[in-house]
Amino acid sequence: MSHAQARGFAKILGVSLADVLAHAGVLEDEEAQQLAPSYSESDVAPYVPRPAEAAKFAAIARALGENSAELNLWRVKGLALSLAGYLPGDFLLVDATRSELVRSGDVVIAHKYGRNGDYATLLRRYEPPVLISASGDPTEQRVDVVDGRNVVIRGMVIACWRWP
């Protein structure tokens, strides 16, 4: 895809250019983070598996009985849910089709939009109508109200694992 096409996709989908390029497999995580400074404040970042890893991740999804075309792989960056066992470096399998179906207690990926159009990607537990962190770090202990405009749920975490 050309750079102009990638920008078009980003605009239509309402995501960053780095997001589109990372999901397309064009960028590594570090390159995506350089293009999207908002990820520096985020709890998670998209993860694009290398070809050798892709089969492993697909096998995990199949083992879970997940066939959704909207499964995305993310990697935990922050400590927002560290007391719930989600640690930096952990992999997350997220189903974007379940963003409207989340229930109390579900772990979700959400976007929190700023005034300048930037956003942070949050990893939180959903307790309607808010998102709650579970961290020993006082700066991570925030509650965000899901309003569908400033804070929007983007998907539900269906699996988490860590590899040495």
Rg of Cα set: 15 Å
The major beta sheet can be summarized as: 8 strands, antiparallel
CATH superfamily of the largest domain: Umud Fragment, subunit A
Q: Major sheet: order of its strands?
A: 1-2-3-8-4-5-6-7
Class of the largest domain in CATH?
A: Mainly Beta
CATH architectural name of the largest domain: Ribbon
Instruction: Please tally the β strands and state the result.
Output: 8
The shape, in one word, is globular
String of helices and strands: HHHEHEEEEEEE
Strand content: 25-35%
What would you call the quaternary organization?
single chain
Q: In the residues, how many domains can be counted? A: 2
Protein name: Peptidase S24/S26A/S26B/S26C domain-containing protein
Organism: Seohaeicola zhoushanensis
Keywords:
164 residues; alpha+beta; Umud Fragment, subunit A; eight-stranded antiparallel β-sheet; 4 helices; 8 strands; globular; Peptidase S24/S26A/S26B/S26C domain-containing protein; LexA/Signal_pep-like_sf
Task: Summarize the entry for a quick read.
The protein has helices spanning 3-13, 17-23, 29-35, 51-63, and strands spanning 44-46, 71-76, 91-95, 107-113, 119-127, 130-132, 143-145, 151-161.
